[in-house]
Amino acid sequence: MSRTPLMAGNWKMNLDHQAAALLVQKLDWTLKDANHDFGAVEVAVCPPFTDLRTVQTLVDGDKLEIKYGGQDLSVHDSGAYTGEISGAFLAKLGCTYVIVGHSERREYHNETDEVVADKLAAAYRYGLTPIFCCGEGLEIRKAGTHVAHVLDQIRAGLAQLTPEQVRSIVIAYEPIWAIGTGEVATPDDAQEVCGAIRTQLAEMYTGDTADGIRILYGGSVKSSNIAQIMGGRDVDGALVGGAALDAAEFAAICRYQQHVVPDA
Ligand SMILES: O=C(CO)COP(=O)(O)O
């Protein structure tokens, strides 16, 4: 089954709504200027919540082909939960995606596997496609138990979802030691874990479900390393942090096929 690659920018807590307007427009025109085929490599951005209305207005008004999503959502639908953002609100703003279980949420907001599972279920209640993040810290990597750790996260996260829901999920493998550190997992490291995730999915779900699920790599992705990372047969795109804050650089990542150096 062929999977459409997805390049998703996670802006984290960067860029206010005015800066967001500049970046999405520049990203769209840079890609269109290069005749980017958005159907062949999908492009998405996940800005801070306060930028989403601005991004929606530009995407709708100027027919941008960039998709967008939130960086988190509440497990609750509505009510007395000060500071929380409902999936209903994200859906109403036209979000396609929502990042769930990012390691920064797990670490700084104490999100457990159970909370992450609740958030994945909440995303589906509103028709949002989750970008479900998993990944190991340095200690686990050093101990060599990273694959088992990630597969535990996958099983726990998917526990509440129906097989039909799982078919559309996007999974992002982000080794924590490679996030924002300049330390990139090698293409073999990325493929090892992405491949193990797909094998796990094949054991959990019947039919072609595992074949159809997109598995992204994230962690210090740049235009200079994306082509090699995308060489992994189970790597279907990237979740990009720092490099997604620069339109030209992120566009170059989305255009990774242009800088694949043919084997001599
Ligand atoms: O956490 C990440 C994306 O969600 C990766 O961030 P960097 O690309 O800045 O390493």
From TrEMBL:
Domain of life: Bacteria
Pathway this chain belongs to: Carbohydrate biosynthesis; gluconeogenesis; Carbohydrate degradation; glycolysis; D-glyceraldehyde 3-phosphate from glycerone phosphate: step 1/1
Gene Ontology CC annotations of this record: cytosol
GO molecular function: triose-phosphate isomerase activity
GO terms, biological process: gluconeogenesis; glyceraldehyde-3-phosphate biosynthetic process; glycerol catabolic process; glycolytic process
Subunit structure: Homodimer.
PANTHER family in alphabetical order: TRIOSEPHOSPHATE ISOMERASE (PTHR21139)
Described purpose of this protein according to its UniProt entry: Involved in the gluconeogenesis. Catalyzes stereospecifically the conversion of dihydroxyacetone phosphate (DHAP) to D-glyceraldehyde-3-phosphate (G3P).
Protein name: Triosephosphate isomerase
